[in-house]
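Folding Task

Wanted — backbone structure
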Amino acid sequence: MGRFLQIVGLVIGLAGLILQFCISIPASMEAGRSLLGSIIFVFNFFTILTNIGAVLVHTSLLSPSGYAWLSAFAGTRMRAGVAVSIALVFIVYATVLARLWQPQGLFLLCDVLLHYVTPVLFVLWWLTSGADGRTRWSDISWWMLYPVAYLVYALVRAPLAGEVPYPFLDVAKNGATSVAISATAITGLFLVLCVVAVLADHGVTRTRAPKLR
């Protein structure tokens, strides 16, 4: 089951990312951005970066040995960290962002694949096969670096580029207080998911242990 979920997750994740780039970059250029600016714009989204991380985790575990540059994505800490991050993608999109726009056609397909299907597949894979009971509470500090660094980048880039990847990060429109509240709430949610991930890692490993003996 674990390998099946990996293969399906990898195929769907790659398909969703490739399709997203193929439709978003031309649309961005039509909106007035350059090719380079359009590529950067697509890479600005937490969803895209996290789905890339999920694809790299699957690739690192499915590829033959010898690809040293992929080994960093195969470790316990990385697998669990990506599971936490992609769970955040699912929750924030489903509860906050999905109601802010109504994508159609291929954009709707990408939305479903990258915000719902790949997160569910990755978390299911991690719970059934990726978790190995070796996460530590200290890993949470490493996992937190990703969303905090992303938040800092998005806020610093916003006044320079005149755009934000997500509406709740728009200081010019919503005010600093509103953005600070939103950022704190999402960071808090991420921290809660980190705690749940450590507990789940050790919990599911214990339930699996009798079957392995």
